[in-house]
Amino acid sequence: MSEHKLNLKLMIWKQSGPDVKGKFQEYKVSVSPDSSFLEILDDLNDSLERSNKEPVTFESDCREGICGTCGLVINGLPHGPLSRIATCQLHMRHFKDGDTVYVEPFRANTFPVIKDLMVDRSALDRIMHAGGFISINTGGVPDANEIPIPKEISSFAFDAAACIGCGACVAACKNSSAMLFVSAKVSQFALLPQGQPERYQRVEKMIKVMDEEGFGACSNTYACEAECPKGISVKNIARLNREYIKAKVKSHNLD
Amino acid sequence: MSWFFRSLDSSIGKKILMALTGLFLILFLMIHLAGNLALFKNDGGLAFNNYSSTLRSLPVIPILEIGLGLGFLLHIIQGVRLWWLNRSARSEKYKINTPSKGSSIFSRTMVYTGSITFIFLVIHLRSYWYTVITEGHEVDLFNLVKTSFQDPVYSGFYIVAMALLGFHLNHGFQSAFQTFGWNHVKYFPFIQKAGTLYAILMAVGFASMPVYFLLGGQ
Is A136 exposed, middle or buried (0-12, 13-18, 19+ CB in 10 A)? Predict the structure, then answer.
């Protein structure tokens, strides 16, 4: 364990509710380079509570980069300056003594702030409800590997399924577009035999809800791919576009 | 609205319309550049004036002009609409805007390079197209081009606008193919390189005309 401490100035977004104006509040902290980013917020909250001050509200759950709950914009980048990690996997050794660190919530009108750094991402859930599933009717348990799937295809599907739904793509996008998220969810089913029966209605319904929720359109800047903690490829967005065009040409849906 | 127009008005549909009109304009630029290379024939403008009067006399040209005008109009209106809709998806902006490593400056500035190209287009049409339309076939277009490009301010604006058009095309070319879903491990790297090459050719090609007359070309 290293002995030296980093002295940081944290500028943290404080907002008491969804419809209230927020502002940055300054906190001076002295932290160990071995701490994770969420641990320094824990420590800060601990000291705030001890002196009867209001703690900073932020979300986290698994703290090992697989649940997608934590999500902070640190110095302008979702999940901080490193690529392919969630906020909980960011450690203070990547900061320098004397740094000023701005911490903001994921900003998008579709992600209203609940309090401080905590945002409501249920718009992504509503897109999932529209079609991000496969229907399995009852019956006997199918044998594993009963349907042959080429290794390459199953790998593409798995890469898409690695999306943890954290919303960093929306936060990173200059248009607050959810295209990378939706493309991962559409792709993982479109590629596999189990996803075929609902393939075209799925993409039509998910895009419809995505648009209704008020996410922006895709400008192909590819910022989402770079900021995604799971490295979801923008090739999935191309696939989503293909799926959507095919669905619109083929489906009998006149909506 | 029928399903067709509703689909075109979805977020993906809007992008497809941008990509289709964009590719149409990309094609137009190539033809426009190829024809205008006649400016460089050192014959006092005979080749260029012949080319332009031949174009004028073709009955298909006014029809193509309407199509081209519609292409520009759709691309511009849809672009401004998308910019506005995308912008309003985030009312509270970030305090710190660090550009992502993954996104190019070209992709993030499309609305600006596009707007300057639009201003250029208005000036460009006023200088040449409008003069030809109002004054008819007798206009010595070559002389008009030559004298206007001998003005360093006018030429300077042209050169800057062409550089920014190059930025716009560099992103637009590959972006159109991504929108169509043609992102494939084998072909997409080629499409991206072809787009950059195309953008450089167009920017250098069109900018070479004011440069030629600035340097005393006859």
Answer: exposed
| pLDDT tens profile B91-119 | 999 999 998 888 999 999 999 999 999 99
Range of the structural domain that residue A75 is part of:
6-115
CATH number at residue A82: 3.10.20.30
> Searching chain B, which residue's CA lies closest to the CA of residue A82?
B101
Task: Supply the CATH number for residue A220's domain.
Answer: 1.10.1060.10
Say if residue A143 is in the same domain as residue A221: yes
Claim to verify: residue A127 and residue A231 sit in the same structural domain: yes
CA-to-CA distance for A72 and A90, rounded, in angstroms? 11
Around Cβ B127, how many Cβ atoms within 10 Å? 14
**Has residue A171 been placed in a domain?**
yes
| Cα(B175)–Cα(B20) distance, integer angstroms | 11
What ipTM, to 2 d.p.? 0.95
Q: Do A107 and B171 touch (CB under 8 A)?
A: no
Mean pLDDT by groups of 10 residues along chain A of 255 residues = 85 96 97 97 98 98 96 97 97 97 98 98 98 90 88 97 98 98 98 96 98 97 97 98 96 88
Residues on chain B touching A238 (C-beta within 8 angstroms): 178, 181-183
DSSP 8-state assignment for residue A134: -
In a domain, B98, yes or no: no
Which of chain B's residues have a Cβ under 8 Å away from the Cβ of A179? Answer: 11
d(CA A160, CA A7): 40
Flag whether B69 is in a domain: yes
Domain region containing B38: 9-87+104-214
Q: How much is the CA Rg of chain B, to the nearest whole Å?
A: 19
The CATH number covering residue B58 comes to 1.20.1300.10
